[in-house]
Amino acid sequence: MFWALLTAGATWAYGQDKPEMSKAEITKQIGAVTKQVTDAGKAFKAGEFDSSVELIKKSQAELIELAKLGDKTLTRRLEAPYKSIQRAHAMLELEGYTLDPLPTWEEISEGKIPDKPAMAAAAGGISFSKKLAPWLVASCGRCHVDGSRGNFNMATFTALMNGSTAGKVIFPGDPVGSRFVEVIESGDMPRGGGRISPEQLADLKTWITEGAKFDGPDANANLKTLLPEGAAPANAAPTLVRATGSETVSFSNEIAPLLVENCKGCHIGAMRASGNLTMDTFQQLLRGGDGGPIVVPGKPDDSSLIRMLKGIGGQRMPAGGRPPLADVDIAKIATWIKEGAKFDGPEGTTPIDQVVNLAWMKKATHEDLMIRRRERALEQWKLAMANETANRAEKGDIMVLSNVGDAATQRILGIAEKALEDANKYLKTERGQPLLKGGIIIYAFKQRYDYTEFGTMVEKRSLPTDWSNHWGGRVLDAYTALAYSPSATDNQIKGQLIQGMLGLSLSSMSGVPFWFSEGVARGAVSSIVGKDDPRVAQWNQGVIAAVSGAPSAKAVVDNQVGEEQAALIGLRVSMAMTEPNRKMLDEFIKSLRQGKSFDETLLRLGTNPEKFLEAAGVGK
């Protein structure tokens, strides 16, 4: 029992040396320390471990201060409570607590008490602080320094030596029996693409053989504090570098398709990525997994990705029964890394499957994209309306899928043809060119429940209760969805369709934000349909409040306002661009169609998104 261990030997006999302090004074001071140790034992027995820890810390500090007085008689009397504190350390550390190192009895009895007791590395031996800590943080930091994966944390040296809930992982003097060495040597750790070099493993074994000693200033400080000041973490992800066009291998066209085909389910689109190695985006690919980055630009041989694909030093990837990559494909990835692992996609945060689709879209014809988009639309319908076969009508660039009956579906198609004609006129689309490459899908639902179910199942979100239509889709998908009302006039339905068609068209251009796409689309509805669409009056009434209610133009740019407010702010911008005439809007759209991005187009006008919004009254 802890109680017995603490109180054992707590009595003492006075020696025959003449004390430098009176017997009463010695008894009083040592008695105070002993009482605190006794109280700590009672707290431990009651399960009040935190209180026990605090009492032991206080007892230890006071004992050390007494020892520093240098009174030999007093020092001898301190040996019994010292041993009780020493036993307390052992018991509390078994409960997972960390205490300040206790000086050795030799240090106390000889009056050589260090300010911060620490185990010193053997002369000429492996330094934990300089040789081991840096790569431990680099290769194991994400899981076991920043976290406690598998109930094992090694944020401090003390925590490392305490081990996991399953027991100690390092046994000083015994590298063979140390679990820490075993999991590294077997290739089981680190996971997620990390790598421990043979030299690092050899240093670890030697350090353990030498007694696993600590040579840092504080065994309870975070291991990251042992890194050289100003040094970047060894596992820092490489920086995204844009492709110049001179590379022989394209990430978007050649590497990304290989990754999507072979890594999907485990590392792309996975609920829980193996080894915490998520590759949903290019930035995540660069970041790597639990073991750090898997790509070292310019160095394919040092890149864990290549080693994993070849099965060097661990399980070969892809796993799960999938066939290994062909040598020619691995060589292609190696070449991409050797050329700098550069990115030729849109943004580093764009999902990799979208990067693949965008690259395909650039090369695809209008007709090829239309076929694929319609195939996907049928799949989306089955996802949202699993028990209903769609009514289908299509003509030219338009396909309608609905559950409103064949007659109503044909009505919607007829209105959509007129809406598309008006939308093309509004944007001044060149003759023979589509408003949107790949055409437009229209989903029409007979009940609002079906409309909201589409949002839930396909878009993975709850649609606002006051919505009756919206447009959306990413990359291959491009659709406008609406809750169909048989009593709605043709112009009311046309207004909904124009809004969706123009929103889709503008949003497909480089870097165009939602607030601008939706704002111009609503401006077009106001211009073409006018008061025949009751929403126009509601929009006009809400513009002033939306603009004045925006905290700043930056908040709009950073998507920190709601969709409806952003749309009304965009409508105000659209109004400003068409008053007294629409020359500014026409020039703006012309620039976008020439391939200039939204920001580049604004730069041509001598402004930027924030100033552009401020000119329309936002944030003032």
Describe this entry's structure for a reader.
By secondary structure, the protein is mainly alpha-helical. It has five domains: 108 residues; 99 residues, no CATH class; 109 residues, no CATH class; 128 residues, Glutaredoxin, CATH 3.40.30; 112 residues, no CATH class. It has a five-stranded mixed β-sheet, sandwiched between helices. Helix 3 runs antiparallel to helix 5, helix 11 packs across helix 15 and helix 19 packs antiparallel against helix 20. It contains 26 helices and five strands. The protein is 50% helix and 4% strand. The N terminus is likely disordered.
Fold blueprint:
Blueprint: H1 2-7, H2 23-45, H3 49-67, H4 72-77, H5 79-94, H6 105-109, H7 128-145, H8 157-162, H9 179-185, H10 198-209, H11 251-263, H12 282-287, H13 304-310, H14 327-338, H15 352-363, H16 366-384, E1 391-395, E2 398-402, H17 406-427, E3 440-445, H18 448-457, E4 469-472, E5 479-483, H19 490-507, H20 514-528, H21 535-549, H22 553-557, H23 563-577, H24 583-593, H25 598-604, H26 609-615
Parallel strand pairs: 2-3, 3-5
Antiparallel strand pairs: 1-2, 4-5
Number of strands: 5
Protein structure class:
mainly alpha
| Mean pLDDT reading | 85
**How many DSSP H or I helices?**
26
Write out key terms for the chains shown.
620 residues; mainly alpha; 5 domains; five-stranded mixed β-sheet; elongated
Q: What's this entry about, in short?
A:
By secondary structure, this protein is mainly alpha-helical. It folds into five domains: about 1-110; about 130-225, no CATH class; about 250-360, no CATH class; about 365-490, 3-Layer(aba) Sandwich (Glutaredoxin); about 510-620, no CATH class.
